[in-house]
Amino acid sequence: MARKSITELKDEEAALFNDNAAGEITAADLRTFITDLLDTIKPSFAILKTSVEQAVTFGVTDTPLVFEAVGLLDSPEWAATTSKVTRNIPAGVEVACTFTFQSDVLMPADTTLYFTLYVNGVATGYVTRIDSIKNDPQVVSAMLFGFSKAAGPVDYEIRVHANAAGKACTLYNALLTFENKVTR
Questions:
Q1: Which of 48, 108, 146, 154 has its CA 20 to 30 A from that of 100?
Q2: pTM of the full predicted structure?
Q3: Strand, coil or helix: 4
Q4: Residue 73: pLDDT above 70?
Q5: Could you confirm whether domain 44-182 is CATH 2.60.120.40?
Q6: C-alpha angle 36/40/45, rounded to 5°?
């Protein structure tokens, strides 16, 4: 079965369980409805992660962040590469998608990095900035949380740029997760 909208579930419930005075509700009807309900309310996840150190040089142009591994739960709704997650939701089903990005970054002195969520190739307002201290390289944690209700197939990616060209950094334990929940 596939996810249904809340409206579709209510219509199905009304059609299958309108009256049992005549014994019209069958075990098959009940199984079908419960299966559809469970498929609709179960969460689905997409996860991109990097568990090894990743040396990256950032410049002033947004560059897609590349991860080493992809994990998908309920994979018919998700497709992924090591730099992008695509959410495929049936027409008419409204889904709230929450996302979380986090990474530790070893940064050279005097560096600022900007991590931005892109949706369908367009920068969103979800941006986090991290800075290193002058004259001292250090490890800084980057975190970004948000919510998206974009309809239809949607591509998500994290892109990064620095305050100057040639900023050699090392990423540790980078993790990008997405979760879908049906809202209507």
A1: 108
A2: 0.79
A3: coil
A4: no
A5: yes
A6: 135
